[in-house]
Specification:
One of its GO terms (biological process) is regulation of DNA-templated transcription. By secondary structure, this protein is mainly alpha-helical. The chain is built from 13 helices and six strands. It has two domains: 3-88, Arc Repressor Mutant, subunit A (Orthogonal Bundle), CATH 1.10.10.10; 169-285, Serine Threonine Protein Phosphatase 5, Tetratricopeptide repeat (Alpha Horseshoe). Mean pLDDT is 88; it is low at 253-274.
Amino acid sequence: MKYRLLGQVTLQHTKVVDIGGMKHRVLLACLLLSANRFRSIDDITESLWDCRPPKSSQNLIRLYVHQLRKRMGNSGADLMTSPGGYTLRVDPGELDLHVFETKTGHARALMATGDYESAAARFDSAFALWRAPFIFYTGSPSLDELHGPRLEDTAISAVEDHAETLLALGRWLPLTTRLRPLVERFPFRERLLGQYMLALHWSGRRVEALDVFQRLRSSLVSELGIEPSRELSALRQRIVCDDTDLAPPDVPLPALAMAGPAQPRRRVRTRQAGQGLQGALERQR
């Protein structure tokens, strides 16, 4: 992996390369976010200085580009000058963001075929590139504001799909730890909260699962004047009633071992593997 955007912006060959100060880092991030596409000097100026560029901004950009090229070594030729701006050529597999999106796309395709085991492994491989809490930071307020929410949503959507595979495989116990900080950070993502509630319920922590719902409802009512979705409300009611149709899926012993030693004592009905939160919600219809 030559370029990294997920986490700290870095350039590496056999080892991490010192690309210079914050302006060089922001310049590289700006070019990577439009990899293989033209980036105008005006766009770069805004990324580097927001609304207060110095009078010498264009000369400074030329200097930063020159210095960045030198630090890029043989890859400096990939930073191409065009009239009015620059383009950074990035080959497949060289940018962690592209690889992350490719791996999660493959994982979703495997989910669609019902191959949850392979999908979970592909998600794990993707999350090795970008770890929780999935904060996107380049040092440029304009870049972070423009791209941060979209990229963070990309990561959390992948977390939700990954959680769905783990619930379907019977590996719900680790989710009670993994999802908690994300639920606190994204308190209105109902799919994420539903998965967290289900993982808690299946782990024998029904009171905590119901508390998650109550906190969401209180926030929605007080801040937005609305109620939780019909689907999440129905899930909450089924947890209250300890609905046996909401019991965990039957899974092989190795999967149960991965879920952890402490499993809830409840009647387990035989059902097709691969029915996590989505399956639970569909069975209420």
